[in-house]
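Sanity check

After download, print the first record. It should look like this:
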Amino acid sequence: MRLAAVDIGSNAIRLQITNVTHYEGIANFKKLEYLRFPLRLGLDVFHTQKISDKNRLKFIKLMKAFKLLIDLYEVDDYMACATSAMRESMNGREICDEIKEDIGMKINIIDGNHEAELINMALGGSIDEKSYLHIDVGGGSTELNIYINKEKIATKSFKIGSVRALDDNIPVSVWKSMNKFITDHVTKQDNITCIGTGGNINKILELTNPRKNVRSLGIEKIKEVQAFLESYSYEDRINKLNLNPDRADVIIPATKIYLAAMSAANSKKMMVPDVGLKDGMMQVLYKKNKNKRL
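Expected structure tokens:
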């Protein structure tokens, strides 16, 4: 069985195609294709409340290319989800309707809570009886989920994201609201561990551990990486640190968001599982299709 997930974010758009097989009663997921295209829809929407004509055309071309790959791989089922940039744009629904009519590709514009639920589905074995704060930082929003003894006790989405923060125009009230949400549900006695998801925290981990054999970071190490990145200009982060242009500018504001949430929770450690929204979509697709013939 072949499944495909399209994650339409504020900073980039991703396609993953996965082959699922069964062996001795266990489902095995094998990634066949992964593409990430740096189309920053959030830069339009967070300034003008709509997707520009230029990016509209690029987005339509990209969806046609993704749909062609989905067809070429003979995918059995797919799911496409758009997050904060598309849901906040005045013309987002119109563009999605145009794509549906043109190539028959359905795009679901999901709210922050649904986005958080999908990401949570991908966490799988990362959650045990301990206390956890899950922090997912995207381009336009940050989703927080709090777990105690394997039970999710609170969840909320905030309009704080790496692209949105580039101009440093996130209202202080929003930062305070995020901080209050955390402190209202977490006490020092919880001894909480954070779980970080999103492209930026994975890049931070990579900068500290290129071999990827450790999937956790201490808060002091994250602060070190923040200071290290801030010591370079945008151009040097691209040319000397080999960061993609669409990563080189957002990674610093993203780091600040992760650190702000960790500090509010009085957490000293962050786990970084290599999962995201697309993996949650894969879980939904698998549950929907698992009884079909593989």
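If your output differs, re-run the checksum step. Summary of this record's structure: The chain has a mean pLDDT of 92.
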